[in-house]
Amino acid sequence: MNDLHIITAQTIALPETAYQARHFINGVAQDSADGRKSDRISPSHGLVVSQAALGSAVETEAAIKAARAAFDDGRWSRLSGKARAAVLNKVADLIEANVEKLALIETLESGKPISQARSECGGAADLWRYAASLARTSHGDSHNTLGADILAVVLKEPIGVVSIIAPWNFPFWILSQKLPFALAAGCTCVVKPSEMTPSTTAMLADMLVEAGLPQGVCNIVLGYGNPVGALMTSHPDVDMVTFTGSTAVGKIITKTAGDTLKKVALELGGKNPQVIFPNCDLEGAADAVTFGVYFNVGQCCNSSSRIIVHEDIADAFVARVVALSRRVAFGNPLHPDTQVGAIVTPEHATKIDGYVRAAVASGAEVCIGGGPMTVPGVGTQFYQPTVVRGVTPDMAIAREEVFGPVLVVLTFRTLEEAIALTNDATYGLSAGIWCDDVHTCLEFSRRAQAGTVWTNTWMDGFPEVAFGGVKQSGQGREIGSYGFDEFLEVKSLVMRVGRTRAPWVKNA
Ligand code: NAD
To answer: Which of 207, 257, 330, 355 could serve as 94's disulfide partner, Cβ 3.0–4.6 Å?
Structure first.
């Protein structure tokens, strides 16, 4: 453990006071009617980073009512795409102007390194700009071949009021994968960030006002899944729920929303493999595996938490990944060089450790790490970079989402075996292959049960390219034109040209 690359220094000052996060309902920032608040303690620095209003049914009802009224009177949904795009582009400018403020609070609330918080918050501006471009270019379809007396057009219309429920691991990015697309489509929204990371969402409210978003179009309610999230998914005035979070909560939401037959889009967990063939850029693959498992402290739906490596190269490849694990900079999130920060809560750190201990008890071998660690000056809520081999596909550590800096190693001999291991999962978010033979890459890509397949790379993403999962990793797509279409309803308009319709009732 002593030979890890640990960063204890800090180059950024802590804020002097806790950020006060408020709800944003019908254009007004407000505390809860009953005055309740919750403190968020920083996973890395132990201080109270923020005090957030804790919403109840009162605030949630008010937010839904405001969103409903704003949708129904057309103050946003009937604006031109150009007018909507102008607001979204302005929000993007404001996000860029506020990156430092957003990144600091996101780092302190989540424990992630400041460099990753900066690229997450700054990069989100591009999602807003891309959504703005869709607001202007969205169109339906026309049918001009139905006969001389018929013309039909298929219109795309905003679906209505959308509930947006987000997790804590990429609070600002995931919000920006949803909200600008819903707004570009003409929907109105009620947003609930995670109770652990409420602040960057609350900060966005000021930017929405400054950009000129009409009152009531986007409403933010802070608080817990129950009652806030539950009401957002059951309320009859909500037309759609888009949720990112755990598969367990996704299932609850699907059941709750079923009572009123709302549309539900879900982005859930993953157990994403990278398959490593001997004939590949092994150095690049080892680096991508290291990135894939330690990025965002492994608390990432796209974490490549398992590798399936060819038996002939398994020892050498694992040795390479272990060597890289020693060089990854772990430690104080408020140093620009830090690559891996703190675990979000002590309970989650215990859960991660439980998976590793259970695997060891079943005969697995820890190659590096395997326990919590203390980073001098910033506390105990860290977990060592961990590589576990000797794992069998039936172990919980090989099947379940550990959501920490823990890599498990499985091995294969043939492409068939690699594909079978890849698909032997309840999840299907993403998968990757490292191989110089294009035929093998194509065969794997077509047969892997995953929403995204990367070949000779990992976690490259673009606003233009749809993202989502199959199996228990979710339903529906986010970003890209497919993600945008989730927020649109299709209406067919069939028009007769001239008085050509033959009577149904025969003339007497
Ligand atoms: P979580 O499911 O515990 O919580 C997510 C959100 O749901 C929070 O805002 C929470 O308050 C809310 N919630 C909880 N119970 C609810 C209920 N009954 N009704 C409505 N809302 C409720 O997830 P988390 O721990 O915040 O995030 C981690 C999970 O998110 C992981 O499983 C991860 O894989 C997943 N995730 C998926 C993606 C993706 O795009 N596929 C991206 C990021 C995270």
So the answer is: 207
Residue 357 lies in a domain: yes
Q: Whose CA is nearest to atom 23 of ligand 1?
A: 245
Q: Would you call 301 a catalytic residue per the annotation?
A: yes
User: What residues flank ligand 1, with Cβ below 6 Å?
Assistant: 165-170, 174, 192, 194-195, 224-226, 229-230, 233, 244-246, 249, 252-253, 267-270, 301, 401, 403, 429, 469, 474
Work out the average pLDDT over 256-284.
Answer: 98
Please give the model's pTM, rounded to 2 decimal places. 0.97
DSSP secondary structure string for all residues of 42-89: -TTT-SEEEEEE---HHHHHHHHHHHHHHHHTTTTTTS-HHHHHHHHH
401 CA to middle of ligand 1, Å?
13
Q: What is the CATH number of the domain that holds 61?
A: 3.40.605.10
- Please check whether residue 168 is in contact with residue 194, taking contact to mean a CB–CB distance below 8 angstroms: yes
Query: Burial of 416 by CB count in 10 Å (0-12 exposed, 13-18 middle, 19+ buried)?
Result: exposed
Q: Is 161 in contact with 64 (CB distance < 8 Å)?
A: yes
Give residue 302's domain range. 273-455
Output the six-digit token pair for 254. 């699907």
Query: Is the domain of 295 the same as that of 194?
Result: no
Cα–Cα–Cα angle for 166, 127, 130, rounded to 5 degrees: 140
Question: In the 8-state DSSP scheme, what is residue 503?
Answer: P
Domain identity same for 45 and 79: yes
181/88 same-domain check:
yes
3-state secondary structure at position 127: helix
pLDDT tens by residue, 205-232: 999 999 999 999 999 999 999 999 999 9
Same domain membership, residue 309 and residue 176: no
Task: Judge if 94 and 174 occupy the same domain.
Answer: yes
- What does pLDDT average to over the chain? 97
**Token digits for 386?**
């961990």
**Within this chain, do residues 436 and 478 fall inside the same structural domain, yes or no?**
no
Residue 286 lies in a domain: yes
In a domain, 83, yes or no: yes
